[in-house]
């Protein structure tokens, strides 16, 4: 998949985690890596960029285990950005689903129709 | 952990990221990796979670380059530059509340600068063939969430050598300021935005506004048409080669040190005041507005039509 496109999706995922609650770096990374392969699409640069764009701000909080952790918190500007990305994503994915499912969702059916057409030739 | 951090640091140095930033990045990673290992992540799993130090460093370096490359001018930040492909240019601007300044550029490129905290990436800003286009976001869905802190203002610079065919701007409350501009046609539609034109030359000007004020200073204009409701019109030091058509309901008109061919004012209650204003002919139509001209030279000014109900026309010289 196109790297730029993938980065945009990861960005939306990061925003979706932080729209729910403040979170520290590793918590965000491990949440995303439960569901996505994030190794080649690094999350930290996204956190850093969105912070410098004022979409997030950070604060330190003591942890029970050791050194204080840097927490990321979504700003109002970040929330508006999240909504606009979300809206774009929903419209895009809706369009994609519409196109790829126009012949129904079932692979057997698609295969059957395809076979029929190939056999006719 | 040590290896990963050392590799990352070396890669960042290789990519010429500044030391202060490196210290911060390394510190963040120390913290994140420490937390990860407390939660049971092994040394070998680190790159899978945090990325390959080489790729990570390259990405961070690229990002910090973009941020430090910001070019500023009069408090504006450069957004895009275009190299003109043709000798002529059309400018099309569609805004809501954004203020727009147009002035000549110091080099041969078109530059679009912005200021304010709004989402610059949601504006359509493009140049193709001979048209520069600036358009505010179309999505109205989030308009209710707009706050004044989301506002953006623009500064556009156009090379002097380009022949500007037409500048067309639509706005609601956008204020517009154009300086040192030569263009064939200028067309402005706005509701409450003010318009200020300084040192300019147009063949044809047409302005429609409800409550916006219009100011023209040191201009040479072919044909001039202005339609206003309550905004004022002020013309200073102008040469209007053709005619002036100005209609207003309650706005006042002030014209000083100006020559014109034929002038047609139609007003309901607005007054017309002029000093050193020498049109060849005047048509004045008003319900209750007055017209007062005070001129030093006693040149002939023909009053063609005077259909004022309670207002009066006075020409002193």
What can you see in these coordinates?
The complex is a heterodimer of chains A (121) and B (317). In chain A, strand 2 and strand 3 form a beta hairpin. Helices cover 64% and strands 12% of the residues of chain A. In chain A, helix 1 (3-20) packs across helix 4 (76-100). Chain A is mainly alpha-helical and 121 residues long. A three-stranded antiparallel beta sheet of chain A has the order 1-3-2. Chain B has two domains: 2-68, no CATH class; 79-316, Pectate Lyase C-like, CATH 2.160.20. Chain B contains four helices and 19 strands. Chain B has helices at residues 2-14, 19-38, 46-50, 53-68, and strands spanning 72-73, 76-82, 88-94, 100-104, 110-115, 124-128, 131-135, 153-158, 163-171, 176-190, 195-209, 214-227, 233-240, 244-248, 253-267, 272-286, 291-294, 302-308, 313-316. Chain B has a 19-stranded mixed beta sheet that branches. In chain B, a hairpin with a 2-residue loop joins strand 6 (124-128) and strand 7. The longest helix of chain B has 20 residues, at 19-38. Chain A binds chain B through residues 24-27, 29-30, 33, 38-42, 44-45, 48-49, 52, 54, 63, 65-70, 77, 80-81, 83-84, 87, and chain B through 25, 28-36, 38-39, 47-52, 55-56, 59-60, 63, 67, 117, 119, 122, 139, 141-142, 145, 150.
Q: What is the percent of helical residues of chain A?
A: 55-70%
The CATH topology of chain A comes to Arc Repressor Mutant, subunit A
* Overall CATH architecture of the largest domain in chain B: 3 Solenoid
Termini separation of chain B comes to 91 Å
Radius of gyration of chain B: 29 Å
Give the strand line-up of the largest sheet of chain A.
1-3-2
Distance between the termini of chain A: 33 Å
Q: What percent of the residues of chain B sit in helical stretches (DSSP H or I)?
A: 10-25%
Low-confidence stretches of chain A: none
Largest sheet of chain A: 3 strands, antiparallel
Mean pLDDT of chain A equals: 87
- List the uncertain runs of chain B: 140-149
Helix-strand sequence of chain A: HEHHEEHH
Number of strand elements of chain B? 19
Q: Which architecture of chain A would the CATH scheme give at its second level?
A: Orthogonal Bundle
Could you state the order of secondary-structure elements of chain B as H and E?
A: HHHHEEEEEEEEEEEEEEEEEEE
The CATH superfamily of chain A appears as Winged helix-like DNA-binding domain superfamily/Winged helix DNA-binding domain
